[in-house]
Structures are given as structure tokens and as C-alpha cells.
Amino acid sequence: MPLFKYGKEIADEWVPAEDGAALPDASHVIVPLSRWREVRHELISRPAQAGVALAAGELADEIVEDLPHLALVQVHFPNFADGRAFSTARALRERHGFKGEIRATGDVLLDQIHFMQRCGIDAFHVTNEPTIRRLREGRLAGIDLFYQPARDGRTTIINLRRRGAAGSERLAS
Prior knowledge:
- This protein is an alpha/beta fold.
- It folds into 2 domains: about 5-140, TIM Barrel (Alpha-Beta Barrel); about 145-173, no CATH class.
- The protein contains 6 helices and 8 strands; from the N terminus they run ββββαββαβαβααα.
- It has helices spanning about 35-45, 85-95, 110-120, 130-135, 155-160, 165-170; strands spanning about 5, 10, 15, 30, 50-55, 70-75, 100-105, 125.
- The chain has an 8-stranded mixed sheet.
- Helix 2 links the parallel strand 6 and strand 7.
- The model has no long low-confidence stretch (mean pLDDT about 85).
- It comes from Hwanghaeella grinnelliae.
- Pfam families: DUF934 (PF06073).
- This is DUF934 domain-containing protein.
- InterPro entries: UCP030820.
């Protein structure tokens, strides 16, 4: 499954450690939340970087105290219509100030990536073949008008309208 970050396909240095499996002797280890609860002290004491994979419905609030020890939080999109991971990513960045990598995995579609980035997601494990093809070609869907404010600080449509004529001209084009 290809990994994209900063508009490029990159090698994935993170090694997953599933429930019940031995912890890998690797420099970057990612575990599901349930496993993190069991081995957090061991991972924190190791020189390896640690990451936690949150399943759909698992909240950022469940790992807030551990964020200083984490280099990566993975959020899962089980299907394109399930937006819970958007909220989790935004909470990690805006409410909890997480500075590490937030990675989207699961049903990541091209037209959602821009919105994922606005919520603070900066890496994408992609399984959808048309999305992989477009990302490899550097053809990310461009969206530049938004109704909701986000961490990227971009002006919303409401603010453009409040500015008057300049905003109206921008919206008309």
C-alpha cells in the first residue's frame, strides 16, 4: 500500500505490531490503541519512535496524555462516508497541539485528501487505484473555497462575503 506525504510517494519506515504479536525491534513502531495500553511503558522506554493507530470511533482524547511520547498517530477511514477520523485529526492538531505525523489509512479517496490536509492529516496510505494513479501523477484535486474554518487559516466563503465587493468578485469566478 503506497504512502504519500508532502505530495510525494515515500517509503514507509513504520513497522506495525498487531495485537498479540511480539514487538518488532525497529526504529519506528506503530501499534493499535488496545496494544498501546498494554505496552506503552515498554515503547516509551525504548529509543524507537512510537505511533498509535486509532480505529474509526476511537478518539484523540484517549491518548492525550501520551502525545508527547508519540511521533505518529494513524487515523482510519473504514469507508468514504465515515468522517469520524476528520474530527479526530482536527482535535489532535487544534485542541491537543499534536506536532507529529497524522496518517490517514483505509478508504482514502482523491477528492477527500484536500479536506484531510485541512484537518491536519499530512500522510496518506492509499489503496484506491485511481487515487494512487492521480497522486503519482501529481494531480491532486484543487479546492480553494471553504465554508468551514480550519487549522490552515484559509479565508472562508463567509469571510469573503463579509469583505464586500472583493469577496463577491472572488466568489463569482
